[in-house]
């Protein structure tokens, strides 16, 4: 086997490992869904993952998952195909304390109604092909 053939074999093997590794983290019957959260038509920019998140609760069954929103307003979550109620939490930072020990609350970036799946009115349908979804808030 020539050096070029060995190099090609190594590259092909590494590519196979990378592809297998990418699909292995999604259990059978589930799909990775990527999407974006928009506010007023623009991405909901989050300061850090600790300040923005989504909860997905299945309309049928008991499945529930959460995801963080990144600085571009994007998220990724693994779910079974189906319809989910969605809640959104987004703040402009984290709660802190002043020098007197008084709590200073971070400002909500979305209306508080979005913090509960019972009041958000938000819903997404996850398809078996994992098509991207967009969640829009006011």
Which structural traits does this protein have?
about 140 residues; Immunoglobulin-like; 10 strands; disordered N terminus
Textual characterization of the structure:
The chain has 138 residues and is an alpha+beta fold. It has one domain (28-137): Immunoglobulin-like (Sandwich), CATH 2.60.40. 19% of the residues lie in helices and 38% in strands. It contains two helices and ten strands; from the N terminus they run H-E-E-E-E-E-E-E-E-H-E-E. The strands form three sheets. Strands 1, 2, 5 and 10 form a four-stranded mixed β-sheet that branches. A four-stranded antiparallel β-sheet has the order 4-3-6-9. A hairpin with a 5-residue loop joins strand 3 and strand 4 (64-68). The radius of gyration is 20 Å and the shape is elongated. 18% of the residues are buried.
Number of helices in the DSSP assignment:
2
Q: pLDDT under 50 segments (min length 5)?
A: 3-22
Relative helix content? 10-25%
Biggest β-sheet strands, sense, barrel: 4 strands, mixed
**CATH class bucket:** Mainly Beta
Q: Please name the fourth-level CATH homologous superfamily.
A: Carboxypeptidase-like, regulatory domain
Oligomer: single chain
Q: What overall geometry do the principal axes of the alpha carbons give?
A: elongated
Number of domains: 1
Number of strands: 10
CATH architecture: Sandwich
Mean pLDDT: 85
Order of helices and strands: HEEEEEEEEHEE
CATH topology: Immunoglobulin-like
Radius of gyration: 20 Å
Relative strand content: 35-45%
The first-to-last residue Cα distance is: 62 Å
- Which class do the helix and strand fractions yield? alpha+beta
